[in-house]
Amino acid sequence: MDMLKGMNQALNYIEENLDNTIDLNEVATRAFCSEYQFKRLFAFLSGITISEYIRRRRLTLAALELKDSQVKIIDIALKYGYQSPDAFSRAFQNYHGVTPSVSRKPQQTVKAYPRMTFQLTIQGGNEMNYRIVEKAAFKVVGVKYEVEMVDEILSPTYENMITSISDAKMSELESFSNHEPSGIVHVSANYSESSDGKATFNQYIGAVTTEENDDYSTLEVPALTWAIFEVEGDWLQVEKHWQRIYSEWLPTSSYELIEGGPEILASKDHKSEIWVSIKKK
Questions:
Q1: Which has the closest alpha carbon to 255: 139, 136, 130?
Q2: CA geometry: angle at 229 spanning 160 and 189, to 5°?
Q3: CATH architecture of 130-280
Q4: pLDDT for 66-107, tens place per residue?
């Protein structure tokens, strides 16, 4: 409940300061977690970054205020953090599909992005099987992708990443595996968000090894503490379990995410392990 209360306090702070500078560190403090963990939790649970949420809320309020013909467009632009009418007009048109001046016309349609709230949903008490382990440093050798998330869409998509690797190359990558987690692994690392609402991270599809390899990209993973979750079932079950890690396990545990730390998925024969790098709060 503290986490639920904190997340809503953070959203209240955002709502009260949409016409001011919003300090994301202060937002995270109100949610009782680090700024990095708040960004990851928010993006994972909502599908958009916190910066993009703030942008949409500001443009929603701006559209409402533009209906008052007595208010100057430049005053609304400055109120919501835009340094010039041109910058505001571009952002407004990209979101609403019309310019600020056109939006003032009677019966002109604009978009509205409602404020979010987090609510507690009580569901069946499904157990989560996990273990906390410390692992020495290792390497992930494989194909690397630079992934960008904009408006809830990944580019490239996971499907495109996987299908771009031939069966022969996938078999070669699997042969490099000599360390847990074994077999082909999918690794996300170096997650970050920009002020314009974009999220980026590196995605590796390959194998965990202790050996050097010059033919593929290499991610050096330092010695870390890991929370390792066991999942049985297809990809839909993996997705549900991953969401439970963020929405249920992390907020109530004594651990938090390592900033930019890797997350690993290893699957074979409908049995999977999700590895999340963590540290004590």
A1: 130
A2: 45
A3: Alpha-Beta Barrel (3.20)
A4: 998 889 999 999 999 999 999 999 999 999 999 999 999 988
Residue ranges of alpha helices (H) inside the chain are 2-16, 24-30, 35-46, 50-66, 73-79, 85-96, 100-103, 158-163, 167-175, 235-244, 250-252
- Where are the domains positioned within the chain? 2-103, 130-280
Q: Who contacts 177 (Cβ-Cβ below 8 Å, separation ≥6)?
A: 183, 184, 207, 208, 209
Pairing type for strands 138-150 and 199-209 reads antiparallel
Record the tokens describing residue 153, joined without a space: 């869409």
The per-residue pLDDT for 46 is 87
Superfamily for the 2-103 domain: Homeodomain-like (1.10.10.60)
Q: How far apart are CA 152 and CA 161, in angstroms?
A: 17
Q: Which amino acid is at 1?
A: M
**Residue 139 burial (CB count, 10 A):** 19
* Alpha-carbon 39 to chain mean position: 7
